[in-house]
Design a protein that fits this description.
Rossmann fold; globular; alpha/beta; 24% strand; binds P-hydroxybenzoic acid; 13 helices; six-stranded mixed β-sheet; single chain
Length: 386
């Protein structure tokens, strides 16, 4: 009897239009303080840019973003925040996730609660495998790294030392680089993994110098670590010794480039987004980003992933007329395809991971500021790491 009554209640609820006075709630989980505080700020500013451009309601519902600070990297806190957002705040979507360990910790909650988990950065391949409700709008490390290794080999860079952060994204980057470089005829001569928290780069950089490779491939999480690495690289005279840096775009994060200054000039990286990307969509995004917030500094790849993730959420809300069901939302998200400020993007229906263009870029001064200037590209790249 109870089941029948519940069934009738559900049926009646489904027939009613979504209540206009019930906000569409998005729980944004990211670090907003601590060493990775910029991740949360960039995502928040990317979301604000989208709302500034498209308005703060969708399918008749006001959009409410509930931001929660993990202070991370802190998987335990991320998990607790996700539980609270689901149970107490009754969010329709979970979003954010700057760091892979935090995304992995929330995946089980998303599965149990059937809440779509909109990944706006976390980039180890395993993230989308951990929950059928995870959909990624950022990148994966293998997706960004494999094209760089191919580009390096094509350009005569065949003996490479790898230096990565010692956690899932770094290990994915190292593995993908080794595989792609050896398939392209090159060789990784040695590899180092450095701590995720406060790495002291000097001794590692000296080891790279002593090994005399043609290049060092680097992945460190975006932010202050990029500045520390580039300074150490310069101080120890690696460039003078003929050793080149090639890296994922995390090293030359747009948000940090001007602070890095001259030492970054000429660095070759691969990535899915550069603030210098030339397209009408990027121009509109950057304008909205500046107008909506103005305090977050130059937009980087996390701001763009958040902007696109917000677009995806609104596309789902519109298709479902404001009434969000987790499984129906995932069915729509799996088939999404649209033009991002970074270029064309699509979600792979099998893996729920993003398929996009990966650009090869060089740091150059443009109009008195440093930018990652795109000069080569690999189109329709999926995640080779799955
Ligand atoms: C991650 O933890 O997945 C991560 C963090 C920072 C990055 C890239 C990936 O720049």
């Amino acid at each position: 009897m109870k089941r029948i009554l519940i069934g009738i209640a559900c049926l009646l609820a489904a027939m009613l239009p979504a209540k206009a006075d019930t906000p569409l709630k998005i729980g944004l989980i990211a670090p907003f303080s601590g060493p990775f505080a910029d991740y949360g700020k960039q995502m928040d500013a990317g979301i604000k840019a989208y709302l500034h451009q498209h308005g703060e309601t969708v399918a008749g519902r006001r959009i409410e973003v509930i931001a929660r600070d993990t202070t991370g990297p802190s998987p335990e806190i991320a998990k607790r925040l996700a539980q609270e957002l689901v149970v107490r705040d009754k969010v329709d979507f979970l979003a954010g996730f700057g760091l892979t360990p935090e995304a992995l910790a929330v995946a089980d909650i998303a599965t149990q609660a059937k809440k779509p988990m909109i990944v706006m950065n976390a980039a180890a391949s395993a993230v989308t495998a951990k929950s059928p409700y995870a959909v990624r709008f950022s990148m994966t490390l293998p997706q960004v790294v494999a094209p760089l290794a191919v580009w390096a080999a094509r350009n005569g860079i065949r003996k490479v030392f790898t230096l990565v952060s010692d956690y899932a994204p770094g290990i994915d980057a190292e593995t993908a680089f080794k595989k792609a470089l050896s398939e392209a005829g090159g060789d990784v001569v040695d590899s180092i993994r450095v701590p995720l928290r406060n790495p002291e780069f000097a001794p590692y950089i000296q080891r790279v110098k002593d090994a005399r490779p043609q290049a060092v491939f680097v992945f460190v999480p975006a932010g202050e670590q990029g500045i520390a690495f580039m300074k150490g690289f310069q101080e120890r005279g690696l460039a003078a010794a003929g050793i080149q840096v090639i890296a994922t775009g995390d090293l030359t994060d747009d948000h940090m480039l001007d602070a890095m200054g001259e030492v970054a000039a000429g660095t070759i990286t691969s990535a899915h987004y550069s603030a210098a990307h030339e397209s009408p969509e990027n121009k509109a995004f950057l304008a909205a980003y500046g107008e909506a917030d103005g305090t977050a500094g130059r937009a980087n790849f996390m701001a763009v992933a958040a902007y696109d993730g917000m677009s995806a959420i609104c596309q789902v809300a519109e298709t479902l007329h404001g009434r969000i069901d987790g499984d129906e939302a995932i069915a729509i998200l799996r088939r999404l395809k649209f033009t991002s400020p970074r270029g064309p993007i699509a979600i792979d229906p099998e893996t729920r991971d993003i398929v996009q263009t990966i650009y090869i870029r060089r740091v150059e001064a443009v109009g008195g500021h440093y930018f990652n200037v795109e000069f080569d590209k690999f189109t329709d790249v999926g995640d080779p790491g799955r």
